[in-house]
Amino acid sequence: MTKTAIITGAAQGLGRALATNLADAGWHLIVDARTAEDIHKAAAPWPDVEVVPGDVTDPDHRRALVDAAGDRLDLLVLNASSLGQTPLPPLADYDLDRLRQVFEVNTVAALGLVQLALPKLRAATGRTLAISSDAAVEGYEGWGGYGASKAALDQLSRVLAAEEPGLRWYAVDPGDLRTKMHQDAFPGEDISDRPEPDSAVPALRRLVDEDLPSGRYSAAGLLS
């Protein structure tokens, strides 16, 4: 039976790298991004894909993603994220409306998607990958808004693992990668020393393919 995955934020970066890997392995993909042109371009090489452009903060869009999965869902990848206010400000100066938006994208929308997907995840004994960050557990200057939203996402994953023990719930820190978001966090700086997003995919595939316990993982730890 062909396995089905929903991957949010699949037009670039880690989402695109994982989607490409799963497409090559024969998965049926449902993918999104805010910009229709970008996600259609990214998905063009994938043989078995349904493209659902939209914003994860939109409840109708979340419903459309889950409806596209059919009766069962093997994998939900919560990858769509907002960096928030840039240049990265200290928390003393963080615009609270922008902070609310970061939580809306990174935490609230993620839970909203999980709530809709749960019946199909249960039907497949599926798993969820919540893409986290070391900023969720470390106190980096300027990363308070993004890091707090990812810490909240980690906690959602932990609680869901307790409430739905028949499924697998993973929060995973992929490490610093050469992505647009990382470049936006360091405007004008050279980030070419960071590894490409593809480098983290083997770690994610361990969580997809193996029966590791629910929990928080790092790509570095999974690959060591």
Condensed summary:
With 224 residues, the chain is an alpha/beta fold. It is 44% helix and 13% strand.
CATH superfamily: NAD(P)-binding Rossmann-like Domain
Low-confidence stretches: none
Assembly state: single chain
CATH class: Alpha Beta
CATH topology: Rossmann fold
Strand tally: 7
Categorize the overall geometry.
globular
Secondary structure category: alpha/beta
Order of helices and strands: EHEHEHEHEHEHHEH
Question: How many domains is the backbone divided into?
Answer: 1
Radius of gyration: 16 Å
Strand content: 5-15%
Question: How does the major sheet shape up?
Answer: 7 strands, parallel
What does the average pLDDT come to?
95
Strand order of the largest sheet: 3-2-1-4-5-6-7
Helix content: 40-55%
Distance between the termini: 32 Å
Question: How many helix segments?
Answer: 8
Give a quick set of tags describing it.
single chain, 224 residues, alpha/beta, Rossmann fold, seven-stranded parallel β-sheet, 8 helices
Outline the structure in words.
This protein is α/β, with parallel strands linked by helices. It has a single domain (4-223), classed as NAD(P)-binding Rossmann-like Domain (Rossmann fold), CATH 3.40.50. Helix content is 44%, strand content 13%. The chain has 8 helices and 7 strands; from the N terminus they run βαβαβαβαβαβααβα. It has helices at 13-24, 36-43, 59-67, 96-124, 144-163, 180-185, 201-209, 219-223; strands at 4-7, 28-31, 49-51, 75-78, 127-131, 168-173, 215-218. It has a 7-stranded parallel sheet, with helices on both faces. Helix 3 (59-67) packs parallel to helix 4 (96-124) and helix 4 (96-124) runs parallel beside helix 5 (144-163). The longest helix is centred in the middle third of the chain and has 29 residues, at 96-124. It is globular, with a radius of gyration of 16 Å. The chain starts with a strand and ends with a helix. The mean pLDDT is 95.
